[in-house]
Amino acid sequence: MSISLTLTVNGTARDLVLEDPRVTLLDLLRERLHLTGSKKGCDRGQCGACTVLVDGRRINACLALAVSLDGAAVTTIEGLAHGDALHPVQAAFIAHDGFQCGFCTPGQIMSAIGLIAEGQAGTDPERVREGMSGNLCRCGAYAGIAQAVLAAQGQEQREDAA
Ligand code: FES
Ligand code: FES
Question: Ligand 1 centre from 125 Cα, in Å?
Fold first, then answer.
C-alpha cells in the first residue's frame, strides 16, 4: 500500500510516497532525503540525537511516524544556516565549546532552539540541563552546552529588545 504525504522540509515542499507506513521521520530524513545531520543514536527515544523541529516544536524524529506528519513543517540542522551565516545557537556552540566529537550536537542544537522558543531555558545552567535532559552527550560536554544555550538566549533577548 502506497501512502502519499507532503512535508515542508527546511522551507522546501516535498511530495513523498511511502511504501511502508512504519517509516519514521528520522529514516525518511536520513535515507530518503539524505539529510544525515539528524543522528540515529538509539532509535528508541532515549538519546535525543535525532531531535528536529516539527511545526516549531522539538521532537525525537525516531519516534514519529512520517505518515502522521502530513502537511507539517520540519526543520533539521541543515536548515539553520543561511549560506556561511550560522544560526545564533550554532555560533554559540562553537564559541562556548558546546561539543567534542559532535555526534550529539545536531540534536542538542535543535533541542536548544526549541527550549529557547518555549521560553523554558531560564537563566541558570541547571535549568538548561533540566530542559535538555533528553539530549545525552557521551563526551560530557554539558557545561559548554549549557553556556552556549544561555548565551544564545541572551543574544536573542537583546535583539528582541533593540
Ligand atoms: S535516536 Fe532518537 S532518541 Fe535516540
Ligand atoms: S559531543 Fe560527543 S556525544 Fe556529545
Answer: 23
Report yes or no on whether pTM surpasses 0.85: yes
pLDDT digits (tens, 9 = 90+) for 71-85: 999 999 999 999 999
| Most informative mutation of 25, 36, 38, 50 for ligand 1 (most atoms within 8 A of CB) | 50
Measure 18 CA to ligand 1 centroid, in angstroms: 21
CA distances for 65 relative to 5, 62, 76, 136, angstroms? 12, 8, 16, 22
Span 20-70, pLDDT tens digits: 999 999 999 999 999 999 999 999 999 999 999 999 999 999 999 999 999
Residues of the chain with CATH 3.10.20.30: 3-79
* Topology given in CATH for the domain delimited by 88-161: DNA polymerase; domain 1 (1.10.150)
Cα within 13 Å of Cα(143), Cβ side: 0
Ligand 2 near 47 CB (within 6 A):
no
- The CATH code of the domain at 3-79 is 3.10.20.30
Beta strands in 3-50 (DSSP E): 3-9, 12-18
Distance in Å, CA 27 to ligand 1 centroid? 11
